[in-house]
Please model this.
Amino acid sequence: MLLLQIDTALILEKVILIIVILLGSLGVAMYATWGERKVSAIMQDRVGPNRAGPFGLFLPLADGMKLFFKEEIIPDRSTKFIFILGPCLAMLTACMTSAIVPWGPDYTMASGHIVSLQVADINIGILFVFGIVSLGVYGVMLGGWASNNKFSLLSSIRAASQAISYELAMGISLIALLMMTGSLSLRDIVSQQHGFWNDGYFSWNFFKQPLGFIIFFTCACAELNRAPFDLPECDSELNMGYHQEYSSMKLGFYLFAEYINMFVSSTIMVTLFFGGYNFPFMDQLAASLNPLLFTAICVMVLLAKVICMILFFMFIRWTLPRFRYDQLMKLGWRSLIPLALVNMLITGIVILWVFKS
Model:
């Protein structure tokens, strides 16, 4: 009976955490659209959203209502089941990756019960991320193929080849990081970056693997189909791309999936390279604060880092022009993959030299 109560409490705890993460991801995705427009307006010397509510803050709500009440149109010559499955799969895979992110340190209640701010602490967390990311392209492929539109099909083929090309460099760039951490678990990687300074050097992995981060970030831009890697949605060549035939909330699912993916990708990068919820002097702060308040501060620190990463994504989008498709492929195969291999070899040499000494 006691075991059943414990399992019920654990299940309820995880369900609440899942709901909070999903609602938070949707909220961030909604207001990332507002932030995108504000950032582009500032960089182009425009005003930006300012009509729907104060500072245009109600604009995401207006966009959501517009998409929700639009007419649902399914082309007669489309493969209807797969046409509907495409955006659903894109949305599902976008939401699944956040399950293994440690959003904060464990909180110990007065009763002694430990609350983990991580849905699933699996020991192959990085492999789980790559598995879900590789499935995400199927949503784009199915949508483009089922539309029975040549522009949508070309766009989905571009997206697939782009994802395959840059996932390889992304994976190799992480091998060097895994050689240093010795673990695939995101919680272990975060705990190794405790605080900010350790043993006479910075503890965050960004300072130990700067080239690995640059390669990983570049590949993440390509995986997200964001400028300058937005070849699958190239308006001047392919109209709207793979979601050209979509309307109403099916189109909304694709748009939401893009921004949720950007949020989750930023969270993964902050977790791997920027210490996650760790920050300088956190041990001194933990000793003088209530444990619940300290946990809340750690979560806010993680979200602040993620917001900074999202803004960096936006700055890149509104600064660099779009690559040509041949330039995109050359960058992935001739530049990023060799750089990732060199970085991996240098990391191995340094690790062996440190162990020998």
About this structure: The chain has a mean pLDDT of 88. Residues 71-356 form one domain. Residues 2-43 form the longest helix (42 residues).
